[in-house]
Amino acid sequence: MTGHNGSGQAELLIMHTNNLSLWDFATGLYSQDRVSQLCLELQDEYDQDVCLLLFLCWYGQRFGLIEAELLARCQEFSRQWQDAVVAPLRQSRRWLKSYLQAETARLDASFSQAGKEFRESVKEREQTAERLQLERLQGLVRDAAADDAGQDKGKQEGSAGSSTAISGCLLALLTDKGLSPDGLQEKLTELATAASRFAQSELES
Q1: Dihedral over Cα of 127, 20, 141, 179: its sign
Q2: Gap between the Cα atoms of 25 and 57, Å rounded
Q3: How sure is the predictor about 67, in pLDDT bands with cuts at 50, 70 and 90?
Q4: For 64-183, where are the alpha helices, taking DSSP H only?
């Protein structure tokens, strides 16, 4: 939209994306050009949790820079959820795909079909697990807001609605671990840019 200064534009972005749940924001962002591939690269090459990354994009867009205590809570929950719930489902789905493809010539038709249908059911459960993870992350934000009622997060450096805030949230993962493998920072910055562009496109639609 035209006719708004930088601050006013950021406020409009925040108001507009506030109407999107974390799940809606995450699925909308994930569907954008390059984003799904970028997320898979971050997951498979750098062992990053895609749900946590999408959450941080949403948080930066709505609230600005994330506080260290809240980030730690979100990371701890996500690590446990991923290890106990999401990762086993993903491993099963990927193993089934590989097995069914490799053994196609040896499998009878009924087993092959049943295997494919079972793999799809595992995929659906994996997606449900990811949605539940995002719902709980959004709940952790609500919990933190209740604990810190009245705090003005908009005054933090890297205000809500800016690409800087999203990038700051994502790069906080590097600060927390004290590590920056080659290419990781660049991919996180690329994701932040895509998230900011997505929010802008939602505003203009």
Answers
A1: positive
A2: 9
A3: very high
A4: 68-81, 87-102, 109-147, 163-177
